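User: Reviewer 2 asked us to show a designed sequence for the structure in our supplementary figure. I'm pasting the structure tokens here. Could you produce the per-position amino acids so we can include them in the response letter?
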């Protein structure tokens, strides 16, 4: 059973950190109360929770604290079942690397070349790993690899830049949406980046290129947008 295997990594008085956001390891979270009961004196550290990850309060847990509020633990914090730590985000690495360092991190990870990696939520969890905390992973193939891709080397960045610019020669779609992503992915995947990650990065890059200038144009020159709308309305009338 998962609880039995988890209990092997807990000792009396252990502090367990639970991965947060979309990457909550639900199977490990469900098994934690039973494993904590067997070890005794276990405390839990929560991050940003979209929903309550396990029943609270739990008699198996001596103490439950949250370094972020989040929708999922708002009621538990209000009811006193979870103690909220009013700490600035920038102070979390030093806090979690020393005074509040967990003994084990339960995290949802995804397969990457050479092993496992974080998916979407890494912020404070990465600081915990750098502090030397062991990680018990729940492998979730459904999570996006938003944070798990290897960074492109300099040659890969140059290749992707050249491919994207070459793709601009073909105006097949409005804003070159699709062509841009295809060109970027074809180049980036040659340097070990997953196709899904490359497409996601290309979408982000194009969004950052188009959205700010579009919004700025509407703010600075709204007459061009609304005049066109009025002109189309009068033509239809």
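Assistant: Here is a per-position design you can include in the supplement:
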């Amino acid at each position: 059973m998962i609880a039995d295997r988890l209990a092997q990594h807990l000792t009396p008085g252990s502090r367990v950190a639970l991965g947060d956001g979309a990457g909550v390891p639900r199977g490990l979270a469900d098994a934690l109360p039973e494993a904590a009961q067997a070890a005794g004196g276990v405390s839990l550290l929560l991050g940003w929770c979209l929903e309550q990850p396990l029943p609270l309060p739990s008699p198996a847990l001596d103490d439950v604290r949250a370094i972020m509020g989040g929708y999922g633990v708002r009621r538990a914090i209000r009811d006193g079942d979870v103690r909220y730590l009013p700490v600035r985000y920038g102070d979390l690495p030093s806090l979690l690397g020393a005074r509040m360092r967990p003994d084990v991190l339960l995290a949802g990870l995804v397969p990457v070349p050479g092993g496992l990696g974080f998916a979407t939520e890494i912020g404070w969890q990465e600081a915990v790993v750098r502090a030397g905390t062991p990680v018990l992973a729940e492998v979730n193939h459904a999570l996006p690899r938003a944070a798990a891709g290897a960074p492109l080397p300099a040659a890969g960045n140059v290749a992707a830049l050249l491919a994207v610019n070459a793709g601009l020669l073909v105006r097949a779609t409005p804003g070159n949406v699709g062509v841009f992503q295809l060109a970027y992915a074809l180049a980036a995947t040659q340097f070990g980046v997953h196709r899904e990650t490359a497409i996601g990065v290309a979408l982000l890059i194009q969004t950052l290129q188009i959205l700010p200038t579009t919004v700025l144009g509407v703010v600075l020159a709204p007459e061009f947008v609304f005049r066109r709308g009025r002109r189309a309305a009068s033509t239809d009338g």
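For the response letter, you might also mention the following. The longest helix spans residues 195-220. The two ends are 71 Å apart (CA to CA).
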